[in-house]
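Let's see one such:

===
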Amino acid sequence: MAGLDGYGIAVIAFLAASLVIGTLTSKLVKRSSKRYMVAGKSLPLFFVGTMLAAQAIDGNSSLGNASLVYQFGFWAGAAIPIGLGICLILTGAFYGKKLNRMSMLTLPDFYYRRFGNGAEGISGILMMISFIVLVAGNFAASGFILSTVLGIDFLWAMLIAAIIVLIYTYAGGLFSSAYTDIFQIYLAIGAFWAAFIFFAAGLSGVDFGTILGNAPPEYLDLSGLFDIGNGALINWAGILALALGDIVALDFMERVFAAKDPKTAQRGAFMGAGLTLSTVVPTSMIGIIALFFIPNAEDPFTIFPELAINHVPFAIGAAMLMGVLGASMSTANGGLLAISSVMSRNIVQRDILKRILKRPGLDDKRLLMTTRIFTIPMMVAAFVLAYLIPQPGVYLILAFDIVFAGAWAPLTLGLFWKKANMPAALASLIVGSGLRLALYFIIPVEYAGLDTMIPPVVSFVLFIVVALATQKKYPGRPGIIAYVPPEEDIVRGEDLKGYVDPSGTKFQ
């Protein structure tokens, strides 16, 4: 344990800077729920690209990545940043522009407009579960870093990180993410590359070829992509769950919605993809390097901080620790905001108050306060899960496995197919997600990965079949808005302001 030495001081200073900068952004919210949730739909390219990269490069894709490589081989961990990078490329190419034009506050807003209340409620619940899992993975990663660096119990280490994230998320919403991401994510990328170059250049005193030769052959060859016995099914399942399932990501889409215009949303996604893919080699190779320097680690989740503290120069090691911590906190911040926004806007305001209780929705001020309040129980839920089952890396794939199964088909076909309708969306959401849960118990261990790949295919095919079978009663619409929110449900009339749907209708 390092105790409160130079590493501890550096990490504490980093936490303090994150807390101060994140909290000061509360001034930018200006008592507006739209500014709190999507930064007033005003962000330029640099912010959008940086924030998308910061959501992708987190504790799961760095510390979790390295631990998976250490245990199972290069592709087991590299699947994470590869899948996330592909996701952002697809988002930029096909989804970003269309979704930004809709001027939404949350992703379940799309399911409401396109398919109605039922699809909104089910998709919202699935996405909230998904993101509680995601935030849990990042809380756990933060806990492993702080417990190792500060020499304190894992519970208290994780609690420190969680409370700091909660405070500045409560204060500044998406603006807190925008401004803390700038120094957090570029520090992380630079630190990962500095560490990799240090070892690759032989500056550790050990030739890099010797380090690579120490790893089992199957750790570095392509068998991880083609040999079922070496985890190929699981690795491909992870790539697909992230590449496609992460398109149905509350935090990614929050940033797409926050871009000032559709072109910025698209370019920001491409910028985020480039930054994310740049981390594949350095973060994954840390696991291979640790096999040489820390051959018998009791806990694979501690190899990253152990390598940073004991096997690289202080400047690189401190940057590595702050980089993972910042990346974890950044994604936890975005995740907390996203699930709190869905809970207040889609579940409480629209489903509980308006549809079930038949009462007026929340005004802008109350919606803002409700969203802020919900960051507290959402943090607690993620914290408890992280403490009980701390699994960074695994949690990231699991998070998007959940929405990949049932929610991806309705989003994709709802955007690109005119015959998409409400019965198809409900069938896809319910059957896809239910099948994923059932296959978890049915698929043999040796075929693990098929339980991820099969449900979205079934969900997609089922959507088309049900939509075609129900066209007479539930015909598709020419535009992508099938259900326009009633005027009283529009926050300050801004939900649809400036939106032009494919049928040519413009909302002022």
Notes: Residues 480-508 have pLDDT under 50 and may be disordered. The chain is about 75% helix and 0% strand. The domain at 6-387 is CATH 1.20.1730.10 (Sodium/glucose cotransporter). The CA atoms of residues 30 and 243 lie 36 Å apart.
